Amino acid sequence: MDLCPQANCSMMLLGGGNSGREIAENFQIEMRKCLSAYLKDLHIALLRENDTVLDLQSYCVRVADFNTNISENLYLLPGIIDVLNYH
């Protein structure tokens, strides 16, 4: 779980540089595979006071799919890119 305010850990694990940043941004914006998407969905479920159980794994990515230098058993819940500009 990447709790870094700028998602630096996510970007580095996903390949580093601009490539890692683009991959991490794609998870956040298009795929909703990031910490903020999980927390927003959890908040909505709690407000509805239902028994919805969120599958945390569905918000995670296998890092080796994007960075072959990383072990295949490492999964990441990506952080938020540029948290100051995120709405």
Task: Describe how the helices and strands are arranged.
Elements: H1 8-13, H2 17-31, H3 35-47, E1 61-62, E2 75-76
Antiparallel strand pairs: 1-2
Brief summary:
The protein has one domain (8-85).
Radius of gyration (CA) equals: 13 Å
Mean pLDDT: 84
Order of helix and strand elements from N to C terminus: HHHEE
Coarse structural class: mainly alpha
Shape: elongated
CA-to-CA gap between the ends?
20 Å
Number of structural domains: 1
Let me know the largest β-sheet: 2 strands, antiparallel
Share of residues in strands: under 5%
- Number of helices in the DSSP assignment: 3
What's the helical proportion of residues?
25-40%
Task: Describe it.
The chain is mainly alpha-helical. The protein is 39% helix and 5% strand. It has three helices and two strands, in the order αααββ. 24% of the residues are buried.
Features:
87 residues; mainly alpha; two-stranded antiparallel ribbon
